[in-house]
Each structure stands twice: as structure tokens, then as C-alpha cells.
Fold each of these.
Amino acid sequence: MDVKGAALHASGLYRLYTRRLESEIRHGAIPNHVALILDGNRRWARRNLNFARIGHRRGADAVENLLDWCEEFDIRIVTLYTLSAENMEREDEELGLLYELIGARLEKLNEDPRIHERRMRVTAIGRTELLPDRIRGALRRLDESTAGYGDRFLNIAIAYGGQDELVDAVRKIGRRIQDGSMRPADVDKGVIESNLYTSHLPQSSPDMILRTSGEKRLSGFLLWQSAYSELVFMDVFWPDFRKIDLMRAIRMFQKRRRRIGR
């Protein structure tokens, strides 16, 4: 078999495997809330001898594909870790380029008819007051234009830190105790959850958290909400993430026996 024939044979086997995998996972439980740590843009760029901005741009393209795939599998809630609070402490040219790209993609998202056809509520979670004006403006417009939606949810974790989220929740509860509208004895898990950034969601805890790039840690992502989430770590850089990778992650999720502490 020549090289061309081998390539055609391989592509045929790949398509067959893809169809079989999709058929299998559609007969199992699909996670309702999937959270993703989008990692590996810069390493993808270095591996491909490109500038970091090219890696971030390819990563942004992968996000658009991901949203379509989640719609195909009826995943109703998607939470994306796009920029950590720690990332914002860098003062370099790359951060400025990243801000520019995020601002442009948010504006594009607001004009995307799919968001409105799917009635997708888009919300930023994090200390957004720390972001540049253009990004805050784009997030505000997205929030306003999707405020009445509730069929799908897209959460953009930006300027986000899991410890910051817990600190902010404690401060909110502390103010209520201070003004007398709540007693310390009233504080329980439900009260804490109602003061987290994800309190607007019908299901704040992800069924599955997926991290790309081969790193095996959460890096402070959704510290409270991840208590019983299934964790999936994949050795693929985010810009290379494909539909088959999402399907493989869902199959791993389906093979887990979820006890939720019981």
C-alpha cells in the first residue's frame, strides 16, 4: 500500500471509530454541566514555531467549535476558565494582546445568532472590575442581551480565582451578619452556594471538569463547586482540541461510578 492509500485507510478507520464512539456515548449519561480549563495555547505555539498570539487565536477558534459540539450533545451548561486572576499580574506585551483578542471575541459572540437562537445566558464570573474598559463593556452588553435566556448557560471565568470567589462570598455573608439580616447560625452550605459567582445557575457544580495540556491540577478553578465533579485530564493542547476529544472525555465520565459522597 502506498503512502496515499495508507492515509486513506487511516482516515477511513478514524471516521469509523468516530461514528462508533459517538453512537456509544449517546446511549449513556451526558453531563449537564461541563467546565473546562483551556490550557496549552502558548505551548502549542512554541511547538509549532509560532508566536504566542497565534496560539491564543487558535485557542479562541477552538472555543467556538466547542460550543457547537456541546449543543450537539445537549450539554446545557458550559463554564470556561479563560483568564485567571494570577495571569493578570503579568505586565507584558502578551497580556495586552490577550486582552485585545478577548475583547474582539466577546463582541463577536454578542453578534452570533447561535447564542440567541439557543437562548444561551452568557455571564462572566470573576473580579471583572479589574479588567480593561473594553472587555468590561463587552461583558456588560453580553449580560444585558442574554439576561432573559435560560435554556443554555455559558459562564466565562475571567479575572477569576477560586480563593477570591470564596473570599467574596464570605464578605457578602459577613455584611449580612453585620447588618443583622442573618445570624451566624444560619450559615450553611446553601447560604455559601447562594453567594458564589455561580449562584445564577440551575446547577452550579460541574458534572465534569476537563483540563487540556496534560497538567493534572485544578489551579484554583471552582474550588467549592468541584467537590464531587469528575476530573478528566487530557494530553492535548487546547488549540488542537477536537470533537473526538470531547467525546473521549464524555466516555471517561460515563465509565465513572458517581457516588457523590454516598
Amino acid sequence: MMRDITLGQYYQTDSVLHRLDPRVKIVGTLVYIVSLFAAKNVTSYLVATTFLAIMIIISRVPFSFIVRGMKTIVFILLITVLFNLLLTPGIPAYTIWKITISYEGIRSAAYTAVRLTFLILGSSLMTLTTTPNNLTDGLESLMKPLKVFRVPVHEIAMMMSIALRFIPILMEETDKIMKAQLSRGADFESGGLIKRARNLIPLLVPLFVSAFRRANDLAMAMEARCYHGGEGRTKMKPLIYKSRDIAAYILIVIYFLLLLTAQKYGFKLIRS
């Protein structure tokens, strides 16, 4: 299960999406997330689906590898969909005992499932096609205007980069600890929910100890190299926009305008 987490990992391959400026991919991901929450009908979701499918094909990252990250949120996704299905009032569609499912609940559950799925896939695609260093540089560059308000832009970008970099490391560490505990007779599968939670204690304690140890080692390494923040620091590979980046920005704007048009004139799942 831990190996199924793809968020924060980088998939090395040669594609147009990999060669794009990280700022373009960050902005594109943010625009795509906003568009998912702006979409309210079938046509707008078809536009979002088409755009995501094209990006996945261009990225050359295997679809099976991207979808692996969905396994870790299936439980949360099912609970969210179930709550929307059962707790949304409206015109009754089905009645099972004392539970009434409305047409609006069905629509809300369907849109929520698609929205969360596409959100995870889109975010994973950004990290799979962008190295942590490039992601840090892109975030820092985009947040530069916040320096006027004395926001520590470089430090925030650095923390986010370290967090993303530590995700696969901690997952690998969790896998090692779990195998070691299983070899000692630990059982993480049997029993009820409370018992399973208790069985995770022998896993979580060494994991937290290992995480704090790695964080301390990283802090000491940064101090040993005289790291004092981003003031006056230069970059070995400065970010420079190229023609393909400008074309990508234009494509993002066209996509968002198409989605807004589809939202206004498109077909709704349930018309009021």
C-alpha cells in the first residue's frame, strides 16, 4: 500500500511536459483544480476529462503508474461520495427503508467522485513530471511578489520541497519497518478497526523516531554547509521562459475559457 503513493515522486522520461518550465506546470495545476470546482455540468467535466487525458498522453508517464496513487484515497473517496449521496436533500429518486436518495444527491456524489479523482491525478501528474529542485525554484519564483509583505518566500518553498522529497523516503522506511515487524510476528490485518489501530503502534513509533532523526541530520547538514536562507543566493539553472512555455500558457487559458463556455451552455445532469 505504501508503494502506491505517487504524490511527491518523480518519473524520469523525455516528454514535452517534463521539459516545460515548472512555473507553467504549477499555474496549470492550480487552474485545473479551480476549473474542477467551477465545473457544474456534464459538458464542463467532459472538457476537464479531455484536457487531463491529453496531458497524461503527452507526459509519457504510464497511466497505471499514475492511477496507483488513487488506491490510498479510495476509503476517503467512498465516504465522501456516500455522505453526498445520502445527505443531499432534493427530489426523491429511491427510498430504501428510511433512507431517501435524491436526484440532487446522485448528481452531487457523481461530481464529487470525479472532482476528487481528477484532483489527485492532476496533482500527481505535476510532481511526476517535475523534479523537487525545479518545483522549489518554480514556487519561489511565483511567490516573489509576497516578499513585499516580508513573507519568507524561499523558506516556504524550501519546506514544501523537503516535504515532497521526504514522502517517498518515509514510504520506503515504512515498508522496511512493516516487513521487520511482520517477521517478528506482528499482525496488521486481522481484528476490528480498533484492534488494527492498536496494532499500528509498533509501526508508528519507530517511523516517527526515524523521521525526527532524518530531520535532525538534514538540519545539521544544512548548518555545516553554512545555509542561512535564500538572501543573496544564486541558481545554477535559472528559470527562463521559452516559446513552448508561452504556448502552454495560451493552451491553459484556452482550456479555462472552453470550460467556462461549457459550464454556461453545456448539458446538465439534472435540469432544474
Amino acid sequence: MTKHAGYKLSGGDIAFHTLNYAFFTLFSLACLFPFYYLFINTISDNELVRIGAIRLFPRGVHFGNYAKLLSVGDIGQAILVTAGRSVLGTGLMALASAFMGYLVTKREMFARRLVYRAIVVTMYFNAGLIPWFLNMSALGLTGSFWGYVIPSIVAPFNIILVKTYVESIPAELEESATIDGAGYFRVFARIIFPLSKPVLATIAIFGAVGHWNSFTDSIILMSSQPKLYTLQHRLYIYLTSTSNLGALMSAGSGGAISEAAIASTLNMRTMQLTVAMVTILPILMVYPFMQRYFEKGIMIGAVKG
């Protein structure tokens, strides 16, 4: 018998904890391995990557693919566009969600219930893709960077999360500020917003991941503006280009495809892997630092929602 945290563990407890740790260790490794495998393929010798010789460890390590990626003009522009929409879109969405979530908790707000229900309804019903595109076109948001940002500012689910969180803040804090003459904006800026960091961090994760990974709106709205393509859109273009040329090669063309085209395909493959790594790396770096806020914000919505 072994003493643990003030009580004795039986043989069954020890076996359970051992299996539990072993299972989750293997599960974590299984989740991390695809990212590791992708990374070692981007830094290994391109020829070895082509023939599938890279298994568990990198071979012929080099970082030339990343240097080449940065030298491609459209990739650099796509990174700037994606980073810009992620930062600006997430910031505006978090601010708007925080203020709107705070307002719908005020009983004195005109038509508060009607407004809140109208927000909730949009989570379940929408007009569809074509009416959405026609609306964006009528608003002049096609071919414009703001087409990425403005539609995402109001997010119903985020407003619900903030509303639930604000209702958990002691009302005495707001009452004392009101007695001292503070208005809604000052109460929000000095009390509500600073105390809402956990739920706002949760919203920021949702928003940043959504903006960073989005490419459908880029395909639909920015067809006439290649300079505004997102990084995911560029990755999609590389993927389809490689697939199309690969299909021609596998079908056989009697030598119609030149060696230069084949070399281009192989190079495109390695660049595709590199772009994929650059695409997922920021989220992998940010999430561990935001995880504790994410869990707290979600649990509040789960318990009180």
C-alpha cells in the first residue's frame, strides 16, 4: 500500500492511475505526431520527402523551404492579410461582444428581451450563401479587406457567453460605481471589461482561430482581388495545383509533361507542406497561453448558461 495525498492507494487504484496516465500520454502523442511529422518533412531534404523516406526523424536538415516561402510575394502578402484580419477582426469582435453582452443584462434597456431574442435567433436561422453574397455585394464589401472584418463583429454565441459572465459579477460593484456618478460607459470600461478577461480570452481564441483558418469568404468575396487572398486560400490554390498536375502525370501523357513541370510539382509539394506548417504554427503557439482562460470562460457558460 502506498500513501498518496493523505490516504492509502489500493492496488486497483495504482493500476487505474497507471493505465490512465499511459492512455492519455499515448493519446497526446497521437495528437501531436501529425504536427511533428509535418514539421520534419518541411525541414528535411526535399528529395527524401518526395520518395517518402522521412519517418520519425528529419534527414538532411535545412530551412531553405521557409526561406523560399518568404521570398514568394503572394505568400508574404497572404500572411499580412490573414494576420491583419485576425488581429483587427478579433479585437473588434471581442469589444463589441463585451459591450453588447453587458447591455442586454440591463433591465432598463429599451426592448431588451426583443433585441436579445433577435440575436439568439440568428444562431439557428440564416438566409443562405447566395443572399449573403448579394448582401455583401450591395454593401460594397466584395473585393474589400473590410469584408473579412465587419460581418464577424457581432457573434451571437459570444454575446451569450459575455452576458452569462457579466451576470456572475457581483451587482454591488456596479451599484457602488453608479452611486459615485459613473455612467454605463465608465462602469463598462472601469469594472465590467477588466473583470471579464477570462471570457474575453475565450472569445478571442474562437475569433482568432476562425479568422486565421477561414478561406471560404476569401474565395467568394475576393475573386477579383488576388492581393487580398488569405493564407488558407493560398494553401488551397497550392493544393489544387499540385493535385491537378499530379492527376495528369498519373494518367500518362506520352511525354507531354516536361521535366520542368515534374520538378515544379515536387517543389510545389514541399512548399505546400511548408505553407501548412506556417498556417497552423501561430495557433499552436498561442493556445497554450490562453488555455486556462479558455477553460474558465467555457465552464461559466456551461454552469450558468
Amino acid sequence: MKLDRLTERIWVYPFEEERDRPNLSYIRGDRFSIAVDAGHSDAHVFDFYRALEREGLPFPSLTVITHWHWDHTMGMHAVRGLTLAGSRTNEHLLELQRSVAAGGGREAHLALHESIQKEYADGKPLIVTPADMVFPDEMKLDAGNCPVRLFHTLAPHTDDSVLICAESEKVLFLGDAPCGAFPTWEKKENLCRKLAETIASTDAQICLESHWTPLSRQQTIQDLLYPDA
């Protein structure tokens, strides 16, 4: 699988449904590069890095996490450079680490969904690690003529959803924030409305969910507020 170029500074390694692999995105600054999310496993990370190498792109110095779910974080131990997550996300990661380490924890986690079983079909261990660095609610980075804003938002998917806005590129990375809560996929209307307001407050022109193709900001808001339209 190859990288898709989204803007002058942004590339995306596309999502895959079978193993529930999310988009892994790449933001290239003049001083360093940033990855968005750490993937479902070390194999997912290594596939991403091979795609970067084919494009002649340097490995990311920093990997930012959108939320704690396993398909976005279980490759954290394999990433190059440092990892960065919101404080809520890191608390969830520590809890997940304890759960997987507990007796029967690996089997219980694999039983959550067949996509996890497929990602770990070769019997490799489940490895959960907390982030190297943590921020409370909002943080700004500048990778070199490429300002990036990270901020927590209320959202229907999880209580730790972080949005990542590459401001000069006008791209907003949503993670799974617009999705319903696992495993019922219920979407609370008030949280959808709050997320829509947050997205509307940005200058982004392109919104990228983790398991979907890029949409306009207006289409993303429309889908949140009027899902049956």
C-alpha cells in the first residue's frame, strides 16, 4: 500500500477495514515531521515506515495520539522518536496496559473483535505503552513553518478525543471522534452537536477521520448534525 498525498506537507497511509487499521498520517515540517497515531501493531507501523521510505520521507520525530483505542496505540512501542498524548488518553493507556497484563487479559482483548484477531494472527504479543510526553487540554507545536494545534474535545466516541489541526495546511485530523461509542456505536446527540461546534470553530477545509476518506469541513459537520439526511 502506498502513501496518498493530501497537501503540500501532508501524506496519508490509508486505512484498512479487515484488520481495523486506521489512517496513519504524516505532517512534514521544515525542522521535523509528525505522525498522527501509532497504528494497530508494530507490523502496521513498519508498513507505514516502509511507505515513507519509498517516498524518500524521513521518519517522524514525534507521533501524536488521537485517543486510547488499541488500533491507534498498540504500535506505540515500535515508533521512531517520541510519542505525545493527552492526559486522559494516557490514563486510559495505563489502564489498558494493566488489563492486557492481567491473567487472561490477552485472550479477553482478542475476543473483543475479529479484526484484532486478524492483526495478531501470528501470535505476537500485545504491547501497550504509555506516551513519552503528556499534555493536559491543548498544545501548540511548530515543526518548522508548519504550526500544529492539538486540543481535547467532547465527542461521541470517547472521553479523551484529541483533534489535531495542521493550521497552515487547513487540515483537521479527527481520529474516531465523530464515531459512536464502542461496542454499541451509540452517538449521543449533545456530543455530536458539541463536536460539530468545535470543528466549525476551526479554519480547516479538509477533515480526515481515521477510518474514512477526506471530507470537507461542511460535509463532516452535516454528517454529525444530520446523519440520516
